[in-house]
Amino acid sequence: MDLILKYFPNLTERQKEQFAALPDLYNDWNSKINVISRKDMDNFVEHHVLHSLAIAKVVQFKTMCDIMDLGTGGGFPGIPLAIMFPDSNFYLVDSIGKKIKVVKDVAEQLQLKNVTAEQIRAEQVQRDFDFVVSRAVTDLSQFAGWVRGKISDIHYHKLRNGIIYLKGGDLTDEIAPFRKKVRTWDIADFFEEPYFETKKVIYMPMGK
Q1: Neighbours of 33 (CB within 10 A)
Q2: Taking 80 as the threshold, does the pLDDT of residue 179 lie above it?
Q3: E strands of the chain, at which residues?
């Protein structure tokens, strides 16, 4: 909890309890199926929870905002964001059933009423969202194709509706086709840990 409180000191007691419960929940699941790489579990809070929360440094999701976490894996960035924004709605999807089983159990254990999880492919989703978040599932061009037509045209945040993407490394070529639209933030500007030195939050507005 110390690492999270370092950057998010104004959490409610309930949020503190939920964040504090995450390591044990994922350690338990990791003993059954490989949700997160074993070596990464040693840095679980930094590499998964705090990394996910970089999005909260870019946008404050409003009440009843609808967010899809596409390719959520074991629930990142969706689960930490759902804890951070309890009045927003999160739809966590992945094509791999065992990962969605983990997400559903974690959401239930934490009593996250604002989380729905489903095993489904991107092209099968038939709903509109204010934002689609993800953590380096694929190339941004391909990802944008997956979510095209799924972003609502009704905007009520400072950032227009669109994609918010977590990715690391040199992204020059990847974002070049969208350079006039894409905005990026260095996560190292938010968090001082060396792990975040090359990682970014990428934002691209989209609509129908």
Answers
A1: 11
A2: no
A3: 66-70, 89-94, 115-119, 131-135, 162-168, 183-186, 199-205
**What are 125-138's pLDDT values in tens digits?**
999 999 999 998 88
Q: What backbone torsions phi and psi does residue 191 show, to the nearest 5 degrees?
A: -125, 135
At a CB cut-off of 8 Å and minimum separation 6, what does 63 contact? 87, 88
Domain boundaries, the chain: 8-205
Q: Beta 162-168 vs 199-205: how paired, if at all?
A: antiparallel
CATH class of 8-205: alpha beta
Distance CA 185, CA 57 (A): 10
> Which of 207 and 81 is assigned the larger pLDDT?
81
CB atoms within 10 A of CB 5: 12
Which segments of the chain does DSSP mark as H helices, in order?
2-7, 13-30, 44, 51-53, 78-84, 97-109, 140-147, 172-175
CA 6 – CA 2 distance, rounded (Å): 6
Question: In whole angstroms, how far apart are CA 114 and each of 85, 92, 130?
Answer: 9, 11, 15
